[in-house]
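Standup notes, structure subgroup. Blocker cleared on the adenine input:
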Amino acid sequence: MKIDIISVVPDLLNSPFAHSIMKRANDKGLLTVNVINLREYTTYARAQVDDYPFGGGAGMVMMIEPLVNAIEALQQKTNYDEVIYLTPDGETLQQKMANTLSLKNNLLMICGHYKGIDQRVRDHFITKEISIGDYVLSGGELAAAVLTDAIGRLLPGVLNDESSALTDSFQDNLLAPPVYTRPEVFRGWEIPSILKSGNHKLIDAWRMEQSLERTRQRRPDLLND
Ligand code: ADE
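Run returned:
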């Protein structure tokens, strides 16, 4: 999969994909992330990419021309399955959406700043608008990093244990059960003895019970879905 991300602060996105699982996805050739500097696509002086809003009001708006220049230049080289705008008024990201997007080949993500992007870009170029939650970030970069990570780890071959993405919280509308590792006893705190029983049927049943209980307590809304 290839993910291209248009940003006015491309350096913000250097680190998230350079470590751990996202780095492995890149090293294995399973996920290529390119960050494109929007300022390279403006024809305005001093690499300007934003301007005052028509009608007045506080804040700046990202101009249509640099964005369209960048999007169209990238579209010349790549046929994108989705052109995604990260915005707090988009559809809220859920595991299902990450699953669906992980089946695509090429995604283009656009990170907004200031008061957002000129509405005409949204009307004519964007195919999907995604929010990562009901709070406002100072720009779309961290949201694009979150979305890319959520998608990237689902690509076949990225996780070592192929089954481990399937047992994540949310994959089946259940939160994940508690987990333990060595030592067996720490400050007198013991692990549940069933986990040492070696009986995998019983262990699976215990984990399912724990998942259900945790979901009932913390996210009962998931059980109604
Ligand atoms: N940009 C600013 N806030 C955001 C959010 N919550 N989700 C996606 N993009 C954003």
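Discussed briefly. The two ends are 30 Å apart (CA to CA).
Next: hand off to the docking folks.
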